[in-house]
Write a structure and sequence with these properties.
The chain is an alpha/beta fold. The chain is built from 21 helices and 14 strands. The chain has a domain at 282-498: Alpha-Beta Horseshoe (Leucine-rich repeat, LRR (right-handed beta-alpha superhelix)). The protein has a 14-stranded parallel beta sheet. The protein is globular and about 80 Å long. This is F-box domain-containing protein. It comes from Rhizophagus clarus.
């Protein structure tokens, strides 16, 4: 490793760009490694999960070094607490590597210097002014809690023209979006958190001027028993006009039941180029809306994740897709609730639609009955879908409550099918407590799995935390048969995320 040249190191470090812990350790190896890592770390230094930025004095030190000469007199007068060495030169021109602004995080770092709102505001103003001079281009902008009209700063036009991803809230004054719309017309990803039960016409204008918007996310984050106006209509009508470029749509509606259904059902058929479609809510639980959704045709669809939905709706979308689907995700128990009275029939049809229309499937949620015909069709699915990497499974008998013996027998059948028919690509299985594996059957399965890629298993069944099971699991971890075995009491950890 020590003899690798800078170009090779850069390629390696690029693969670690979201792993701050590893990148920080690379800083300490030697000067070459440090010089190669710094531009990658500082491309978006505000993005690392789990970091408490309000306690990162070294980041405040770097920011204060940039501010010191420009506002030295102001800093002295206001008694802002700067590091004693903040007037020293930096080893790198860090901001010249930066391609992102995260308002919340930067404000959090600056607050280390002073708790007074006026001081914080002034330092923020100077930082953004300095950023616009130093940063060669801006790719990512999280403008939540923005207080500064940064598009009026010198060089702002040149920086904002390169913006590719924007995260914002609907509570921000429309004037900020009007200002951005003058320069930011090539945004590809727009993530909106809806915090106000009314339309924001600034965001509407920003959407309208985009020339290549391909990624759109909307998440409701407000509570209102009664809406005085529709906060969705103008936004989604503007989005409809971007159908020629839009290929990613993720929606979470909340509280405003009925209003959002109408407008979304109007525009969904127009978004014909969608590759990723995610509804993380109960939107289509209404029978009439289910029938409308079944008619949608997306020939390029690769990922679908629709919660609170019937298996028949999913089956119809799958059948109408262009056989490019790689991920089909949903919470199985929510779907079971929607299909309860027709579960046996619908789940059998769902399995068939998968192997008939999804030759490329890699990640799959699936629910079916413990009936012989269902097991036969599931085995056929495994034999046909040779790219399958991860399975989330429930096997549920809606006709009766099964005895523990019957549940164990279902588990035994499933393990035998997996051994005989699972593709070599399968590396992860997730399951609930609706079927169990006896100690003997699980060990037999692991013995026969030997020689395949190591398997990750996730479950909420507490049987696997008793000593006899944990000892066996530890043994097969050591042997490299099991990569990981996780038990959780929280269903959501099993459901998400693949």
């Amino acid at each position: 490793m020590s003899k690798l040249n800078k170009d090779i190191l850069a390629l390696i470090f690029e693969e670690l760009q979201k792993d701050s812990k590893s990148l920080f350790s690379c800083l300490m190896v030697n000067r070459l490694w440090c010089e190669t890592v710094i531009p990658i770390l500082w491309r978006n230094p505000w993005c690392y999960a789990g970091v408490d930025y309000s306690n990162k004095n070294y980041l405040f030190f770097i920011i204060s070094c940039y501010l010191f000469n420009d506002i030295k007199e102001f800093i002295t007068e206001q008694r802002i607490q700067l590091p004693s060495s903040s007037n020293q030169s930096l080893l790198f021109d860090y901001l010249s590597f930066c391609r992102s602004i995260d308002i919340n995080t930067i404000n959090s770092i600056i607050s280390i210097g002073s708790s007074l709102p006026y001081n914080q505001f002034s330092m923020q103003q100077e930082f953004f002014y300095c950023f616009m001079k130093k940063c060669p281009e801006l790719k990512y902008f999280d403008m939540r809690s923005i207080k500064h009209q940064i598009f009026y700063f010198p060089n702002a036009k040149a920086r904002l023209e390169s913006l590719r991803e924007l995260r914002c809230e609907t509570s921000i004054d429309p004037s900020y979006f009007y200002g951005l719309s003058l320069f930011c017309q090539h945004i590809q990803g727009l993530i909106i958190v809806n915090t106000e039960p009314k339309s924001n016409h600034g965001i509407v204008k920003l959407i309208e001027v985009q020339k290549n918007l391909n990624h759109f996310e909307w998440k409701d984050d407000f509570y209102s028993d009664y809406l005085t106006e529709d906060p969705y209509k103008d936004i989604f009508l503007a989005l409809e006009k971007k159908a020629v470029s839009l290929n990613y749509l993720k929606i979470f509606f909340q509280y405003a039941e009925g209003i959002e259904n109408t407008i979304l059902q109007k525009i969904l058929p127009k978004l014909y180029k969608l590759k990723i479609l995610i509804f993380d809510d109960y939107l289509f639980f209404i029978k009439e809306e289910l029938e409308k959704l079944r008619m949608q045709v997306y020939h390029d669809l690769e990922i679908i994740n629709i919660e609170w939905n019937s298996l028949n709706v999913l089956s119809s979308i799958i059948e109408n897709s262009g056989k490019h689907l790689k991920k089909i995700l949903f919470r199985p128990y929510d779907t079971l609730e929607c299909d309860y009275h027709n579960f046996n029939e619908n789940s059998l049809n769902f399995i068939r639609k998968i192997y008939e229309n999804c030759p490329l499937i890699e990640y799959l949620s699936i629910a079916f009955s413990p009936l012989k015909e269902h097991f036969v069709e599931f085995e056929k699915l495994l034999k046909i879908c040779q790219n399958l990497k991860s399975l989330l499974i429930i096997i549920h008998n809606v006709d009766k409550i099964e005895t523990n013996k019957e549940i164990l027998e279902n588990g035994e059948i499933l393990l035998k099918i997996l051994i005989s028919s699972a593709p070599i690509s399968l590396k992860e299985i997730r399951f609930y407590d609706d079927f169990k594996f006896s100690l003997e059957n699980l060990e037999e399965f692991l013995v026969k799995w030997r020689g395949r890629p190591a398997l990750s298993i996730l479950t909420i069944d507490p049987i696997y935390i008793i000593p006899s099971y944990t000892e066996m699991i530890t043994k097969y971890k050591r042997d490299g048969v099991i990569k990981d075995f996780k038990h959780s009491f929280h269903v959501d950890e099993i459901d998400y995320h693949f």
